């Protein structure tokens, strides 16, 4: 069994462990609209920044509960999760397993969502790559059983005009070889970029692979440390409709929060949050 087509991005995950209150405040100051805090049945909490067809998720663990999602605490803070979209988690599980990867069994879980004073359950089916196969972070597939409780117009409009995830950059000692492994997960292909980097082009976003030396040459003081890992998620790129709005919110956020660095390149803006080792490139969309 194989995947019928290359996959779309579902979402990227920023892991903040027990520091959700501060993370929520910072991203709101940066001009993102965050959904109300969600409480997963697995023992984690989250806020979403919902875009056109994908989203950015802040995930953490509650400080006042005995039920704690251990995989969140066992993963480092920062850009930690890459999630592909699937219409059928069970079929995807079988397709990826036949390629020699080890996955967890399909899991169904949810979280309450309040709409117009009524509480409904957002439900999902996921299957995850078992730890140890990809050092950069957690990789999994998500089937939304209730997409209408995630993508809602009132949650998709961000004051900073961000509206889509364009790419994720992955640092690895052997970028070409690693790109081929990720390409197998997305049923996509590897191509060489104009600067020699390896790129995996999926339906609506790209995975970009570089060495650590190339990464540090690109990002300088914005670069993440990697926390001892040879392979890690180094940056993400977001499309914004108006970089002027992005600049205004960053300036305000810097005044209110420590640990924010940014560089204006004219056609893009690089932002780094040192406390979470998160790097974001804002790119002007057409």
UniProtKB/TrEMBL annotation:
First and last residue of the signal peptide: none
InterPro entries cross-referenced by the UniProt entry: Glyas_Bleomycin-R_OHBP_Dase, Glyoxalase-like_dom
Lineage: superkingdom: Bacteria
Pfam families xrefs: Glyoxalase_3 (PF13468)
UniProt xrefs under SUPFAM superfamilies: Glyoxalase/Bleomycin resistance protein/Dihydroxybiphenyl dioxygenase
Domain Glyoxalase-like, chain residue ranges per copy: 9-185
PANTHER family, A to Z: BLL2707 PROTEIN (PTHR40265), GLYOXALASE-LIKE DOMAIN-CONTAINING PROTEIN (PTHR40265:SF1)
Protein name per Swiss-Prot or TrEMBL: VOC family protein
Source organism: Zwartia hollandica
């Amino acid at each position: 069994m194989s995947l019928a087509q290359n996959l779309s991005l579902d979402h990227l995950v920023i892991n903040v462990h027990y520091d959700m209150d501060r993370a929520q405040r910072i991203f709101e100051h940066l001009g993102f609209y965050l959904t109300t805090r969600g409480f997963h049945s697995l023992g984690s909490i989250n806020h979403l920044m919902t875009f056109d067809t994908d989203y950015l998720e802040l995930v953490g663990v509650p400080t006042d509960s005995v039920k704690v999602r251990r995989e969140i605490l066992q993963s480092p803070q920062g850009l930690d999760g890459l999630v592909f979209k699937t219409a059928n988690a069970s079929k995807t599980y079988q397709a990826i397993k036949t390629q020699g990867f080890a996955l967890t069994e399909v899991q169904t879980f949810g979280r309450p969502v309040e709409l117009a004073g009524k509480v409904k359950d957002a439900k999902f089916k996921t299957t995850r790559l078992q730890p140890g196969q990809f050092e950069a972070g957690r990789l999994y597939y998500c089937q939304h059983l209730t997409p209408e409780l995630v993508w809602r117009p009132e949650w998709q409009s961000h004051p900073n005009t961000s509206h889509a995830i364009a790419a994720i950059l992955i640092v690895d000692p052997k970028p070409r070889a690693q790109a081929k492994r990720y390409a197998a997960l997305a049923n996509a292909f590897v191509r060489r970029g104009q600067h020699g980097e390896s790129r995996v082009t999926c339906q609506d976003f790209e995975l970009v692979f570089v060495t650590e030396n190339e990464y540090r040459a690109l990002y300088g003081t914005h670069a993440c440390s990697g926390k001892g890992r040879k392979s890690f998620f180094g940056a993400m790129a977001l499309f914004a409709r108006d970089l002027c709005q992005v600049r205004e919110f960053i300036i305000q956020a810097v005044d209110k929060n420590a640990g924010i660095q940014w560089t204006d390149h004219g056609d893009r803006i690089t932002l780094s949050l040192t406390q979470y080792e998160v790097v974001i490139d804002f790119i002007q969309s057409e």
